[in-house]
Structures are given as structure tokens and as C-alpha cells.
Amino acid sequence: MRLSTPAAPGTLAASVRSWLDERLAEGSYEVRRIPFSALEGWGFEPGTGDLRHADGRFFTVTGLRVTAEGRSWEQPIIDQPEVGVLGLLVKDFGGEPHCLLQAKMEPGNAGTLQLSPTVQATRSNYTRAHRGRHVRHLEYFTGASPRDVLVDVAHSEHGTWFLGKHNRNMVVRVTGDVPAHPDFRWIPLRALGELLRVDDLVNMDTRSVLSCLSPARHGEDGVAEIHGWLAGERARRSLRAERTPLADVRDWHWKPTEVRRADGRYFRVIAVDVRAGAREVTRWTQPLLATPGLGVIAFLAHRAGGVLRLLVHARVEAGFANTVQIGPTVQFRSGDRPPFADLVLDAPPERILYDGVQSEEGGRLYQSRSRYLIVETDPIDPPPGYRWLTPAQLGALVRRPGDVTVQARTLLALVDLLGLS
């Protein structure tokens, strides 16, 4: 059995990078942009113009007509109603918990291989709709005994690009041997903070599952009142999102190689041809959403009585099934800067607790990357829609389905694993 023993500070990241380089050299990976006409099994549906697979599985790029917070717009969006499994195996070695991580390629990944959970699979993957190989280690999650399940909670993906999409985030404890495989490696849980300091190394799904391990601890008082605040935000905020044929979406233009807005903002729909020797399927074509530029995602933080507090924002996003979720203080990619963006971007170095680039979901998004920051500030009287939470309070909310965005979950994982609280 492969065992990653605890490494001296600063050496683990180099060891993991060397392992990923080894796996990259052993595999055969290529992602090429192609015109929509070269997609195999995919096409624009007559009448609606929706981009879907011929057998109706996987996902569909459709249109969405949105009215929210006094604004109206139309956009393409990914509709994938099936619930995927993001599963992390945990085992103690010498009394220290280790996580079994996978060197996994996704077609949209920056850097090709990133550290994914033990299992990262859509329902189409694990039911073998693609007629590919069995998803390795899936049985530990589909057949887990309740006493071994440490975490099992459904969480959303990006509400800007996905329509109501959720994944089952699971952590399962094992005690026996797990079959070794060169694409998997046991890594000490305590050392993952070092890996999170490396740009584009730990993928979004791993960060999401790790956030669910946020420990129960002193400081969770007031969570019931926070639930009331969130319910109130959902009641007072407005979101109406209706599916509409992709062909009817206004202000977007169809070209042989992409669907894009005339002004080039927000994102584009593209097509790729993928070759990946280590995947369950070794070659396929598919659509992706390509997001321009580098996003900015940040928590403002301050300490009161020695306790770290994070300024959260009740966010409305078009694809949220429940209208509002708790998100970061600042989140934007292009266009006008939102409140507090200047405070984050103009912060002096001594106030920056974390500053790194992390990749977003690579299975449906192409080269989507964001700059994540945690910045200390003086106390701020929060405006409507914002409030201060402790990491403990936010961790308690993450243990409930659908309350906390994937971006805020990444930041919580950073707070916990970097020991910032």
C-alpha cells in the first residue's frame, strides 16, 4: 500500500509535484479546441438550439432568463440535474489522519493534473453511461457503513454557470487496506495547508470536501440566529430564473467555434477534443464554458477578543435553487467592482493572511482560475446583506446542505488548514 508519510515543512509540495510530473509523463493527455461541427455525439437541438448529447445524458447547455435584484438578463447555463459524488477516504497512520487523493485530469484544468478527492464522479460517470472503466474506489462510498461516514452533505456548485447543480460531499473512514494504485496517494491531513499554498494544485472538489471537515468547536453559538438571518435574506431578495431555448437568448452570438456575447464579457461556450489515457474513458469530445481573466474572491477578516471573524455576503446567483447562499465578502470576475473590492485589492502586504490562485471546476469550465484572498481589516459595520461570522459558525453552516457557496467553502478550508483561526 502506498503511504505518504508526514514530510518536513516545505518538502511535501515538492514531493507531490514530482509525483504529478511522474503521472503526467506516464499518461497521454491532450485537450484541443475544435469547432462545434467536430463534436461527436453532441449537437444543437433543432428548434431550441440547446447544446446536448444525443442520448440525453451528461449535461445540456441551455438558456436562462433571469430577473434578480432589479436587473434582467439572459445567458447560457449548464443544466445537469444529476447529483455527483465527491468522496474522500480518510485513514489513520500512526495515529495521524491521512486523506487518499487522486492525480486527476479534467479537460479544463490549468496544469492538466490536479489533486482531486478519492472519488470525483457524476452519476453518468459512475453508472458508466460513457461505457468506460469502473470508477475506482466508488464502492467505499456507495456501500459505506453509516458508522464510517464522517461527512455526507449535498452542496452546490457555481450558481453563475450551473443551474441548481449539487454534489454529494462525503468523507468515509477506513481501517483496512485500500488497494494501491499509482494515481492515488495518502497525504497527511495536517499537511494539506502547505499544498493549498501552491497555485492550481488542489482542485475545487477537494477543497469543497475539506471544508466539510471544519471542526465543531467553541464559537458556534448564535447559529440558530444566523439561520434566521439567512431565511430573512431569502425572503427579502428576489430571483426569478426561467429556462429558455438557447437559440432565443438575447445578446449572445453563435460562431463556428464559440457562443459568446457581442462585448466578449462573462464567458464563452466552446468545444474541445480530449485525450486522457488514465481516465475511465480515454477519448471524448464535449462543450465547456471558458471564463476570461482571473476572478477575485475574498474574505475580509478581523479579530475580536482573540477570535477571527469573517465578513460574509448573502449572495444571489442565477443558478441557485434556494435564491441566496452565504458567500465571500468579495466575488467578481469582470465589470464593476463590488463593495469592499478596493479594500481587498489595495490591502498592504502585512494585512494579507492568504493570497493564492486556485482553479475552479475543471470538468465543465475551461481554464477558470480565481485569486483567493483573506485580508485583515479594522472592524466594519456591515451593510444590509453582510454580517460577521466566526469560522466555527461558518463551519456549522457548511454541515447543512445548500447554505454556503463553493467559493466560501474554499476560503473556509484555507482558514482551517492554514491555521488562521
Automatic annotation (TrEMBL):
Entries under InterPro entries matching the protein: EvaA-like (IPR005212), EvaA-like_sf (IPR038153)
Coiled coil: none
Gene3D superfamilies assigned: EvaA sugar 2,3-dehydratase subunit (3.90.79.40)
Signal peptide: none
Domain dTDP-4-dehydro-6-deoxy-alpha-D-glucopyranose 2,3-dehydratase: 14-213, 224-414
Superkingdom of this protein's organism: Bacteria
Stated name of the protein: NDP-hexose 2,3-dehydratase family protein
